[in-house]
Design brief:
CATH superfamily of the largest domain: Vaccinia Virus protein VP39
Number of domains: 2
Strand content: 15-25%
CATH class of the largest domain: Alpha Beta
Largest sheet: 7 strands, mixed
Distance between the termini: 57 Å
Order of helices and strands: HHHHHEHEHEHEEHEEHEEE
Structural class: alpha/beta
CATH topology of the largest domain: Rossmann fold
Length: 275
C-alpha cells in the first residue's frame, strides 16, 4: 500500500526548518515548503510512516542520530560539476601555486574542499595540483574533502560518473585521469587511483567545532553560504580565516559575497580572498 501523507503544514514546516537550522545552519525559506514536502514525502514512504508529525517525532527520538542524517541528506542541494566556476581554478594555477613555488615549495600544500558534494570539486582540484606537480617534481599536496551529506560522499568516494560529465574537459585530461567503462559500465568513467590517492573524504558539519587551526593553504567553500543567514555566514568566515595559513586563500561561489559581513580577508579576484 502506498502511503500518501497529508501535505506539510506551516506549523510543521517551521518545526522542521528550526531543526535543520539548529543542526546545520541551513536556513529554509518559506518558499521551500513544497520542496521539503516532496523530499520528506519520499523518506516517509521509505520508513512506512504515515504523517509528517510522526516522522518529526521519529527523528527527535532516534537516539542513533541516523534518521537525522537522512533528513539532512533530503534537504541538502547538491548540484556540482567538474571545473565549475573555472576562473577559480585558473587563479589557483596561475597565481596561488606560482606564489607557493616562489616560496620554495616547502612543506605539503593543503587544500580543503569544504562542501565537496559528489566529488567533482576535489577531483578537479587534484587534477589542477597534479598538473602543477608534473612541472615541479618536489611539489606535494593533500586534499581534505568534506560534506554533511552521507549520500553524496558515498558517490564521491566511488568516483564513478556519467561520461557526459567530463565532456567539457580536454581529451588529454580525460585520458590521464579517468578510466572509460566497458560492458555494463559503458557510458561511465571512473576516477583513476592516482587521482584519488591524495584526497581524504569525511562527513563534517560546518556548524561543528573545527579540528584544524592555521593548517590549509586554500579553502574552497562555494555555493554553500547562500543557504545560511548572515549570522551563520559570519561564523563560517571567521572559522575559515582561523583555518588558513598566513597568506592562504578562500574561494566562495560566484553567486556569493562577503560584502555584508565583517571579515579580515583581502579580496584578490572574483569571489577569491586572501588572509
Amino acid at each position: 500500500m502506498v502511503i500518501s501523507p497529508t501535505p506539510l503544514t506551516d506549523k510543521l514546516f517551521k518545526q522542521f526548518s528550526s531543526l535543520v537550522y539548529d543542526q546545520t545552519g541551513i536556513f529554509l525559506k518559506p518558499e521551500k515548503r513544497e520542496l521539503l514536502n516532496a523530499r520528506l514525502g519520499k523518506r516517509l514512504r521509505h520508513c512506512t510512516i504515515a504523517s509528517f508529525q510522526e516522522y518529526y517525532d521519529y527523528v527527535l527520538n532516534d537516539g542513533s542520530g541516523e534518521e537525522l542524517i537522512h533528513l539532512i541528506d533530503a534537504v541538502s542541494t547538491n548540484f556540482t560539476s567538474f571545473f565549475r566556476e573555472k576562473t577559480h581554478f585558473d587563479y589557483l594555477s596561475s597565481t596561488v601555486l606560482r606564489e607557493f613555488a616562489d616560496q620554495g615549495l616547502s612543506g605539503e600544500f593543503k587544500v580543503w574542499s569544504a562542501a565537496c558534494s559528489s566529488g567533482e570539486e576535489p577531483y578537479t582540484l587534484a587534477i589542477v595540483l597534479n598538473e602543477f606537480g608534473a612541472k615541479k617534481q618536489q611539489f606535494r599536496f593533500s586534499i581534505q574533502a568534506t560534506d554533511i551529506s552521507t549520500k553524496v560522499l558515498a558517490m564521491a568516494e566511488k568516483g564513478v560518473y556519467a561520461a557526459e560529465k567530463v565532456q567539457g574537459m580536454s581529451k588529454e585530461l580525460v585520458r590521464a585521469y579517468f578510466q572509460k567503462g566497458t560492458g555494463g559500465s559503458e557510458g561511465y568513467v571512473k576516477v583513476k587511483k592516482a587521482l584519488r590517492q591524495p584526497i581524504s573524504f569525511r562527513r563534517f558539519n560546518l556548524m561543528d567545532q573545527y579540528p584544524w587551526n592555521a593548517e590549509f593553504d586554500v579553502i574552497f567553500c562555494r555555493n554553500v553560504m547562500i543557504y545560511f543567514n548572515r549570522e551563520t555566514q559570519q561564523q563560517l568566515v571567521d572559522k575559515f580565516y582561523t583555518c588558513l595559513k598566513p597568506g592562504g586563500h578562500l574561494f566562495i561561489g560566484h553567486s556569493e559575497s562577503l560584502t555584508s559581513i565583517t571579515h579580515r580577508f583581502r579580496q584578490v579576484t572574483t569571489t577569491g580572498y586572501k588572509k
